[in-house]
Design a protein that fits this description.
This protein has helices spanning about 15-20, 30-70, 105-115, 125-130, 150-160, 165-170, 175-200, 225-235, and strands spanning about 85-90, 120, 145, 205-210, 210-215, 220-225. By secondary structure, the protein is mostly helical. The strands form three sheets. It has a two-stranded antiparallel ribbon with strand order 1-6. InterPro entries: UstYa-like (IPR021765).
Length: about 250
């Protein structure tokens, strides 16, 4: 029988598993190459693990923000996709403010413009989402509705006019005057419920003035981006100067 000759296998004749199983058959060069590869894989694995940990931390942080700072949407609104919150300082400044002060043309124009989108058009799907009905348009294009914030603004405008009845309603009849009280009471109650519903817990700090603690008129609040909301509402607003386009019984 011919003698059996043994020789070291070339690197390409072995897989990595065989190298690890019997390193004694490897050349020093091969061992060096494998060592560098193993070191590279360890570093790569560590970096991947570190990256995953970082991404997980960021995801948890974003999840916490989204659950604590965004409305839980317990009640449906068609405006939900455009609602954005921002930090805003409110000053309550009545000087040089078009919405405050005595009756004047620019004051009346500003308030009329502000509450223009009080009535908007919604779809049947919107009504189904809140399990409600409303008055339809004759052309079948939708239904009339209003958003609460514009009703609140309407009430503010109405109370401001109540402070100047003789200016705005110089020919008010006795019957109209009797109805005026309940209307204003309704507006005040609307605000009370709205304030308690929102439950704004923004802190107000104090300062000494005239020997007494007075709260600062300004404070930072978490506010809805009004511009986005107003643009959305104006895109759906309905001219209610006439009711002829509505279905149902019209009382003349």
């Amino acid at each position: 029988m011919d003698p059996v000759n043994y020789s070291v296998l070339l690197e390409e004749d072995h897989d990595s598993h065989d190298y690890k199983a019997d390193p004694s058959i490897l050349s020093p060069k091969a061992i060096s190459i494998i060592g560098r590869k193993l070191k590279y894989h360890r570093i790569l694995s560590f970096l991947l693990l570190l990256t995953n940990i970082c991404f997980f931390g960021l995801w948890q942080k974003s999840k916490a923000i989204s659950t604590t700072c965004i409305r839980p949407e317990l009640v449906y609104t068609p405006a939900k996709n455009i609602i954005r919150y921002e930090k805003k300082r409110l000053f309550r400044d009545i000087e040089n403010n078009v919405y405050t002060g005595e009756p004047r043309p620019e004051h009346d124009e500003a308030w009329a413009k502000l509450i223009e989108p009080i009535t908007i058009k919604v779809s049947e799907r919107d009504l189904n989402a809140i399990n409600a009905t409303s008055i339809a348009f004759k052309d079948g294009s939708g239904y009339i509705a209003e958003t609460a914030v514009y009703h609140e603004l309407h009430c503010i405008k109405r109370v401001r006019r109540h402070l100047h009845l003789s200016h705005y309603y110089p020919n008010m009849t006795e019957d109209q005057r009797l109805r005026e009280g309940p209307h204003i009471d309704h507006c005040l109650e609307y605000w009370r419920e709205a304030a308690m519903c929102r439950g704004d817990t923004t802190l107000a700090t104090f300062q000494w003035a005239e020997g007494k603690p007075f709260s600062h008129v300004y404070s930072d609040h978490e506010c809805v981006n009004w511009k986005l909301l107003d643009i959305w509402a104006r895109g759906r607003m309905v001219d209610m100067s006439t009711y002829d386009m509505l279905e149902g019984i019209l009382v003349k």
